[in-house]
Every structure is written in C-alpha cells, then in structure tokens.
Amino acid sequence: MYEKAMLIYNGNAGSNDIATLLSEAVAGLSQHITEFTLMKTNERGDTERLCRERGEHFDLVIIMGGDGTVHEAVNGLIHLERSPSIFILPTGTCNDFARALNIPLKVKQACEAFKEATVQPLDIGLVNERAFSNFFGLGLITRASEGTNDDLKSSIGKFSYFLSAIQSLQTAESFSYSLQLDGKTVQDEAVMILAMNGSFLGTTNLYHEQTKLDDGKLELYIIREAGLALLKNLFNKARSPEWPGEMEGIEFIQAASLQLETSPIEDIDIDGEIYLETPTRLSLKQKALPFLVCKEEK
C-alpha cells in the first residue's frame, strides 16, 4: 500500500482516448494508494519539472505515456536525494523501457500486474549531464528517428519506425570515431554506435545474454556497415532470444563509462529524443532509480 502517489499523464501524446485510459488507471490502482494525485502535462518539459519539483513528496510516481515521457521523468528524478518508486503505464508508440520491465502494454493489464510488481533499483545512463533509461545512439539510428513523420507515427505507430529505418539503410553514411575505453583509444569508422541500458529498441528485442538492468554496464554495439550484413544480423536476432555467435560487421563491448568523439559532429539520440551532439562522455549510475518490475509471463 502506498501512502501518496502522483500519476503524470501526457494529454497531448499517443492515444485519443485518454479519458478511458485514465479511468482504467484510477480504477485499477486506487485500491493500493491512500492519496492519489493526477497531474496533466501540456508541453515538453512538464513531466521533468513535476518530477524534479514534487517527486520527493510522494512514495510512488506513475508515468502514463511513452518513452519520451519516461525520459523526462528520469531526468527529473535522477538528482533527487530520495526518489519515489516509479511505475510505468505504457501508452506510447514503442514503450521500449516498459517492455524491459515486463510491464503489459495495455493499461488495464498493467494495473493488474502492478499488484505483484517488485521494486528494483535500476541503472540509469548519463550523457553530457542528461539521463537516459533505455538507449544512447548516433549515426544510422538518429537519421531513422529524424526521418519518422509525426503524423505517420500517430496513425500507424511503430510501423513508421520500420519504414524510416529501411529508408535510412539505403542512404547510410559512415563517420569516423575516437573511443576512449578501459584506458585505451580506438579509432575507426562506423555507420552507427548504440549503447543499450534496456533491452528493446523500436519494439525489437535486442536482449543479450550478458544484459542486466542493474550490473553497472552498458552494452555497446559498434556497427561498421549497413546493407545486407546488418539486415542479416537483425533478422537472425529477431528469430532468436540470443545474439548470433558471429555478428558480421558488429562489435559488442560492455563498459561502465567511455568518451566518444566523431568526425563530423553527430547528433545523439537518447530514448528517442534528439537534442545533444558529440563529443560526449557516457557513463552509468548503478542502481540509481527504483522501478517497479513485473513478473515475466511464462
């Protein structure tokens, strides 16, 4: 039972039936909460501000929204002396971090799963003083995200990411990078660099057998080239819960921190939000925020 909880919902995003979703959320969760506060956001930055200014007044913060809303919440809560527990009610397009926490993607089912969810302190990534819960990326992934039409995203959801990614594969350009890691410097070229804290990207399960959400390590993927080699790797991964033993053109590294420079300067995508650029220092704050994690369905 939680004494005080704040539910933050994005009135401008995703679903057109926000009243129904709110009704389901309140009906499903209120029996576990003594004092329940609903807060509507109207513009970008509201979720981060509410979490930063009011987070410590609550035992539980419920984030109803997609990956962008979760991203804002994490940045608002990460610097608090005492963070409340965090529960995600997924109502976005991909809901990638919610997937990593085994949270059902329907609000009613998520509320049911809440009853047996357990609180686990999870790692949070840091880049240029900003936080991310799920991923850091540049190169091909950033261009795919920038190419996603907002109207298309609203109408056909995650399929729009697929269309944009295929288009980006056809026009992928490599960049030079300098990576400082474990006391050594590596210089080479790539079409994409991806650092995962979670295990889903665009609804695709990128789970690696070494992946954990609280081990203090990021999973770093350096993709050398696009085209058929990359498509083959992704196809094989989509068919299997494990990464192929041989990943042609992809280097896998685990790291707690690294420094990265690129030429030319590259835009950075964190949790689907693009507002930073290289050079950057990337690190992980271990067991930084307490999330409610649901039982994995068998």
UniProtKB/TrEMBL annotation:
Keywords: ATP-binding, Kinase, Lipid biosynthesis, Lipid metabolism, Nucleotide-binding, Phospholipid biosynthesis, Phospholipid metabolism, Transferase. Its cofactor is Mg(2+). One of its GO terms (molecular function) is kinase activity. The keyword Kinase applies. SMART domains: DAGKc. The keyword S-adenosyl-L-methionine does not apply. InterPro entries: ATP-NAD_kinase_N, Diacylglycerol/lipid_kinase, Diacylglycerol_kinase_cat_dom, Lipid_Phosphate_FormReg, NAD/diacylglycerol_kinase_sf, YegS/DAGK_C. It holds the Pfam family DAGK_cat. Residues 1-131 form the DAGKc domain. Belongs to the diacylglycerol/lipid kinase family. This is Diacylglycerol kinase family lipid kinase.
